[in-house]
Amino acid sequence: MRILLVVHGFPPAAQGGTEIYASVHARTLRSRFGDDVFVVTRDQDPSRPEFATRLTTDTRSGASVAWINNTFRRTRNFSETYANPSIDAVAARLIDQFEPDVAHIHHLTCLSTGIVRLLGARRVPIFMTLHDYWLMCHRGQLLDLSYRVCRGPEPPGCANCVGEAAEIGAAGYAGAAVIRSVAARLPPGISRRVIGGARRLAQSLTSTRRGLGEAEWRVSHMREICGAVTRLFAPSEHIRQRFIQFGVPADRILTSPYGIEPLGAGIARQPSDRLRIGFAGSLMVSKAPHLLIEAFQRLPSGTATLDLFGAYSTYHGDDRYWPELAKWANDGRIRFHGGVPHERIPEVFASIDVLVVPSIWPETSPIVIREALAAGVPVVASRIGGIPETVVDGVNGILFNPGDATDLHRALARLIAEPGLVDTLRRGIGPVRTIEEDVSLTRGQYGPTTTAGKSERPGTTACAGPAPPARTSAIVLSYGAPEEAILAIRSLQHSRPSLRIIVVENGADPVSRETLSTLGDDVTVIQTGKNLGFSGGMNVGIRKALADGATHMFLVNSDMIVPPDCVAQLHAALDATGAGLAGPVVLSRAVPDRAGTLGISYRPSTGRMKHRSSGAYVPLMDAPANRTVDAISGCAILVRREVIDVVGLLDEEYFFTFEDLDWCFRARRAGFESVLAAQAIAYHAGGRSIGDTSPRRLYYAARNHLRFAEREGGGRPAGPASWWRGTSIVALNLAHAVKASGGSLPSRLAAVARGTRDHIAGRYGEDGRGPK
Questions:
Q1: Number of domains, the chain
Q2: Which tens digit of pLDDT belongs to each residue from 462-476?
Q3: DSSP for residue 5
C-alpha cells in the first residue's frame, strides 16, 4: 500500500512526542507491512527560500521525506497561518507525484488544512490522529493567554487568544518576520526582551472585535475539515468526547491508544537510599515543571533527588516562563540535563524511581507515560485530560489535582513515607500496548488495496489466523454493600473458565475494602476514594483489566448471581455470532421465574427504550435464541477488548443509567453488534445502589435519556423530529414518575424536571456537577 503521512515536524529536526510517534509509525508500516511510505513535513530554515522543498530519506525507516520550508515570512493574515495557498500548491505536486492509496495525517499546524481538500478532490481516503486540540484551538492545548484551561472554541471563547494574531494584518505579519529575524542574531536574553516587547505592543494595538470574527471563521473552517476526514483516531476517550462535542459524529472517531516501541531487554535499575524523581519532556509552561520543583522543595532534605530531562521551550513564543525555571539552575539538589535523544530514554528510566507528569493542559495521552510504565517506572501525574485512562490511581501510579503543588507534594511524600509503595505500584503495571498492535488496528481501518492499487472502502478490517486464548477479567462494581459484592464474587469464583476478578469499591469505606480484600488471591480490590458512578467506577476496573492484558471483560453489578456456566455461554455466543458484546438472559433474584431483561430495544423516532420481556413469566416466555439486540444491560455484559480499543470506555458524564445503551450503540456504529446469549442465565436483584424508589433514579433517567437521544440524533440543531422525540421522552419519564413509588409525587415530578433542566443546560456527571 502507498501511504502518505503528513506531520508538522519530523526527526531528527523535531523531537516532540507527535513527531517521534509519526517516525515510528512510518517505520512500522514499512517493516511490519512492507508499505511504501512518503512523509510530507515542515522545514523551518530561514536561510532557504520560503516554501522551497527538499527531499531526504529517513535513515531509520527508509521512508522518503519531503520538507516544505515555512518560517511565516510571507504570511499575510491570520487565516494563512493554518490554510496557506502557497503550501497547498507545493503539496498538490507532491501528492500527484506519489499517488497515495491512503493518507494518514498526524498534524497540520505550520502546514495547511488545504492538504485535506487536495486529498479529498483526488478521492484519497484520509485518516487523522488527534494528538492535541489544534483543530478546535489554534494554540493547540486548550490553554488561554493566562494558562487557564479553556472550556472550548465557541464564541467568544477564542476571541481573546486570536485577537492579536487576527488584527495585525499583512503589515503586522511582515513586521513580525523582521523582528524574529533580528532577534535571532541577538544574545538570548536581549532576544527574549525584544520579542516580548513586540508582543506587548501588538496586544496594546489590537482588540477582540476582529478576533471574534476570525475565531468564528476558523472554528467553522475546522469543522468542515473534520467533516472531510474519513476517520479520526483518538489516543484517549477524553479527546474523543471533546471532538464529539465539537461536532464530529461519534461513529467517525475511534479510540486508539498509543502503542510504543520496545525499550530493550531488562532495564537495570540500581538501588538507592533516596527517592529518585524524574521529569521527561519539554520544559514549557503547559507541562508545568515548576509545580514539580515547588513540590520537591517541600520534601525533607536528603530524602529525594530531582532530575529534569528536556530542553526549554517557549509556548507560542511567550518567553516569560524561562526566568521562573532559571532561578533553580544553580540548586545542587535539582539537575537539569537538557534535551535527551529519544534513543537514550531507556537510560533515563533506569536512573529514576518515579516519573512525574505535572501538566496543566488536558493532555490527550502522553506517550512518555506509556514508555515509563513499559520500563517499570510508576507515574505520578495530574488528574487531567486523558491521563487517568492510563495512570490508575493506587494501581500503577498516583494522581493529583492539576496545578496543585500541595497535592503533588502529598503524593511524593507518600512515596517516601511508605517504603514499599513504589514496589507495589511497580507490580501494578500491566502490559503496555505495542506500536505493532497500534498500527495494526489503525492500518486495518484503511481497508485492503485493490489490484489497481487504490484502497477499497475504508473502515473495513481483515482478520487472519486463529484467535488467541481468551483471558477474561470480571469487574464487579460495589458501592456501600460489600455483603452483596461477596455473593457476586463467590459465584464468579466458580465460573468455567476461571476468571481474574477485579472488585472496584466505589467509595472510601475502610471496612468495605478490608472485607473485600479477604476473598482470595484471584481477587484484586481497587478503592476509588469517592463515588464515581457506575460508568466511572467500571472504567477504573476496565483500565486495570486492560493493563493486565485481558482479552475480554465481564462487567457485573454487585447484586448479580452468576451461575458457573454463564461466562462460557457468553463466550460461545460471541464466537458463534462474531458480535462484540454479549449479555445473558437476566432473571429476577427475588422471583426467579420472572424475566428482568432479554436485552434492550430502542426506537429512535420516539426515543423510547425498554428491557425486552421485562416482567414476563419465564415458563410461558418464548425460548430465546442467540439474537442481535440494540443493547445489553450493564448489570452483566461481556465485551471483547477490541471493542474498547476502538470505541473507548464508558461515558462518565452519564454517571448512572444509559451509559450501557450509549456504549452498545457506539460499538454498533464501529461495526460491533450486541447479542443476547440464549443459553446464558444470570440473576439480578436491582436497585441496590441508589434504590428502586429514590427520586434521584428518576432524575438520572430523565436527564440521561434526553442526552442519549440527542447524541443518537447526531447532536444536530433542534428540528421537528428532535422536538417530538424530546417531548416524548419527557412525557414518558413524567408518566413513570406518576406511577413510581417512593417519595412524594411532587418530589418525583421535580426530579424529572431537574433532569430535563440539567440536560438543557448541559450539566451532567453526579447530580449535574460534571464528571469526576
A1: 4
A2: 333 344 467 899 999
A3: E
